[in-house]
Amino acid sequence: MNAAEQANNVQVASKIASVVNLFKAQFPDVRVDLKPWMNDPDTRELVDPDSIDIGFHFPGRSRLMQSRSILIQIRFYQDPLEGYRRAIGVEAAGYDHTGQQWKVSTVDNWSFEGATQPTSDSADKLKYFCRQVLELFNKTN
User: Which residues contact 100 (CB under 8 A, 6 or more apart)?
Assistant: First the structure.
């Protein structure tokens, strides 16, 4: 679900802002999109209500990331008995004008799949960002 829609209280809005800052610390030239999904019925049907989705766009196609845009989806699990909500994974996908170039998920084995892949240094930065996001949402207060 679009990050802008998930920012329904100060705590969540603050964490979304932190996610943006964490990503920009690794990739400072990106532009942030807190509403990466269109608001039409077909798209709404595909959107996961238990995720926070943020788009990041480079000024042009990034040679290091092998993409123009990156979609980040932070996935959550709401425990029905205990009532807690925690981040269970981060998924990222890189896109350019021809479509999806690569994807990576922390839920699986943290390996990149796709037609192209980021450079190893850029891939390491993205994985570091993912670890930081999981820590941010799962730390106990």
Answer: 93, 94, 114
Return the pLDDT at 2.
Answer: 61
Distance, in Å, from the CA atom of 75 to the CA atom of 105, rounded to the nearest integer, reads 10
Q: Which residues, in sequence order, are CB contacts of 51 under 8 Å at separation 6+?
A: 1, 73, 74, 75, 76
Give the list of residues 6+ apart from residue 109 with CB closer than 8 angstroms, or none.
none
Tokens for 42?
A: 């077909």
Angle between helices 10-26 and 120-138 (to 10 degrees): 160
Q: Is the pLDDT of residue 71 over 70?
A: yes
Share of the chain above pLDDT 90, in %: 62
pTM of the entire predicted model:
0.87
